[in-house]
Amino acid sequence: MEKLRKEDIPQEVFDLYDYYCHNRIDRRTFVEKLSLYTAGGITLTALMSAMMPDYVNTRTIEPTDVRLQSSDYVMYDSPKGGGQIKGLLSKPAGKGKFPGIVVVHENRGLNPYIEDVGRRCAVGGFISIAPDALTPLGGYPGNDDEGRTLQSKRDRNEMLEDFIAAYEYLKKHPDCDGNVGVVGFCFGGWISNAMAVRIPDLKAAVPFYGGQPAVEDVPKIQAPLLVIYAELDERVNAGWPAYEAALKANGKKYEMINYPGVNHGFHNNTTPRYDEAAAKAAWEKTIAFFKANLK
Prior knowledge:
Blueprint: H1 11-21, H2 27-34, H3 44-51, E1 68-78, E2 83-92, E3 98-104, H4 112-123, E4 127-132, H5 144-151, H6 156-171, E5 176-185, H7 187-198, E6 204-208, E7 225-230, H8 234-237, H9 240-249, E8 254-259, H10 276-293
Parallel strand pairs: 3-4, 3-5, 5-6, 6-7, 7-8
Antiparallel strand pairs: 1-2, 2-4
């Protein structure tokens, strides 16, 4: 059976998937509610198949790409977090030292999409590390459903310490010039905002559709921010007005882009929430922002 096109899927199904992805409904409830949208020849099997991530056909950069010097797993210390954390370290081709980017995954561990984003950063000229916050629980289990279950068992503030430790690891890496930023998606967007609060010498932060920090913490932010939202993502967007007011009141450097007509997760090219035009534009802005600020 031919896979459903994005245009064939009602917006309500994307909203259901968002609830499911963020543990607001369980799988059984998701399937039950999804069955209500099986009219007009659309089967439940087709809907389920369309909404689940495709990691087989969506990789954009191979680990052996000639634009990469290497893309290998490393272990680093996180004494305030999970102890020892695994991460994918990707280096650009060429000699010398490079600015660094910490790439923070969604709420399901270091899946193939986030590994690909780490390699995209390296192709853009940055040494990157994409940590797996599921390392203490055995690591990303190979599928997102189990990954979400595992990640829900970890404390998010402890995971924040794992990504702060990744920043310290990358900053001191012999192939890094010491200028390090962070980009993260969903849960990783919240981590990116939180790292901007916690790390005074962070050079730049790009939170994609991430939860906002407490307004009383905004004065601690020193890094310039590129804040990226999706117009249809009402759940996350609701926190922006208070965040922006605090950023303005404290004279912080930021830019916000709210991409029209797209869903939460629009940058993730493995699910039908992906929007090619918005994702491409947002990534070009991200790389340009890091090039301007990681120096």
